[in-house]
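Internal tracking record. Fields below are filled automatically when a chain is submitted to the structure queue. Please do not edit lines marked as system-generated. If the sequence contains nonstandard residues, flag them in the REMARKS field before resubmitting.
Queue: standard
Priority: normal
Entity type: single polypeptide chain
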Amino acid sequence: MVDFINPVDTFFVNFFSQFTTHYSIELFVAILLYLVYFYVFYAFYYFFRNKNHKSFFHLFTTIMIGFLIVFSLKYYVNRPRPYETFHLPNVIVEKNDPSFPSAHTFLGFFIYYFISKIAKLKRFKTFILLHLLILIPLGSMLIGVHYFTDVLAGAFIGFILPRIISEEVIVKLYSKTFLGRFFK
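SYSTEM-GENERATED OUTPUT FOLLOWS
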């Protein structure tokens, strides 16, 4: 286990722990965190329904690689969650996996890249931006499941991965397989 809790992480844990005295706030935040999966399913459905195979396979491949990176880092670093280290009261969400990096924050930043490509959602872009890029990281810290550096690392991986592994890379990867027929 790598044990690193820096002063910035301690500051944010202490700051957010003063707001977690109400069960209803933590429940609302937990629901917001898990709504990120709705966006993932919607993006898959949208790309599949509209026969946008490049985006569908880009989403599929990069999300698999992303989760492989995130969960490899989680178990390599093996960092305990803030509620375990600081014995926070009123913990509504207890997780069995290590803390670093934040998978929900990774997924929020990651799926924003794909959701922003869907034209029908442009009028909801402000809400989606607020939810995925601001409320998920802050909510993860508020309910005591992540440190600041956890959400920072998750955001970085989620932001950079779909840009590094572009659609063109995916088309080249799959074009020589039986999936190549979808890209013609």
